[in-house]
């Protein structure tokens, strides 16, 4: 497989058939044998996560953005390392599936934001650049910032909703007949 098809997947290799690599290589030929395609389809249906090996939209989108941002391999590797660190800091490994999807969205929008900010900075520094071009990149940057912030906000909301702490509200009546409301998250100590 080429570098573009390399993806880390969580699949128990012991559960894959011995001829897996051969069937995959034959399936990527110009005219694959329909039997090989059927085998792959069955394996993908029976093995959770195996589909990521063949086509993962999120990984493909991010890889495409990285390739557009930088043509040299060292910079591409650095951007990928930055993304991996960001993913780790956002708690990807210990997150629920919904949170993982949102983390991937944050990373994709972050990539677009960084690239657009770079394009705007480059345009401003160019001699003889037209105002309309700078204005275009300014609008695009604002849209990217908005999408990025919405993605971050959505992850925070989902995490708050998935948190195992129930919300509590206590209503107290004061002597003068006035009511005092106290609300917050219940902290359970172990």
Account of the 3D structure:
With 190 residues, the protein is mostly helical. The protein folds into two domains: 3-53, no CATH class; 57-162, no CATH class. It has six helices and two strands. It has helices at 20-27, 34-46, 57-69, 73-89, 97-125, 131-162, and strands at 167-173, 179-185. The protein has a two-stranded antiparallel sheet with strand order 1-2. Helix 1 (20-27) packs across helix 2 (34-46), helix 3 packs parallel to helix 5 and helix 5 runs antiparallel to helix 6 (131-162).
Number of helices: 6
Strand % is 5-15%
Radius of gyration: 24 Å
Count of extended strands = 2
- By secondary-structure content and strand pairing, the structural class works out as mainly alpha
Helix percent reads 55-70%
Poorly predicted spans: 1-9
Largest sheet: 2 strands, antiparallel
Give the overall shape, derived from the CA principal axes: flat
How are strands sequenced across the largest beta sheet?
Answer: 1-2
- Quickly count the domains: 2
């Amino acid at each position: 497989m080429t570098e573009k098809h390399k993806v880390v997947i969580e699949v128990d290799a012991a559960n894959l058939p011995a001829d897996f690599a051969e069937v995959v290589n034959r399936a990527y030929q110009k005219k694959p044998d329909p039997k090989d395609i059927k085998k792959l389809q069955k394996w993908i249906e029976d093995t959770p996560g195996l589909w990521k090996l063949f086509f993962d939209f999120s990984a493909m989108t991010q890889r495409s953005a990285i390739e557009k941002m930088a043509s040299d391999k060292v910079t591409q590797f650095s951007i990928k390392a930055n993304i991996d660190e960001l993913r780790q800091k956002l708690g990807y490994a210990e997150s629920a599936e919904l949170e993982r999807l949102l983390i991937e969205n944050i990373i994709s929008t972050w990539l677009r934001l960084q690239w657009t900010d770079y394009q705007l900075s480059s345009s401003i520094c160019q001699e003889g650049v037209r105002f309309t071009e700078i204005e275009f990149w300014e609008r695009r940057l604002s849209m990217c910032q908005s999408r990025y912030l919405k993605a971050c906000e959505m992850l925070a909301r989902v995490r708050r909703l998935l948190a195992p702490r129930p919300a509590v509200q206590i209503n107290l009546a004061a002597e003068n007949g006035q009511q005092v409301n106290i609300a917050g998250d219940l902290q359970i100590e172990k």
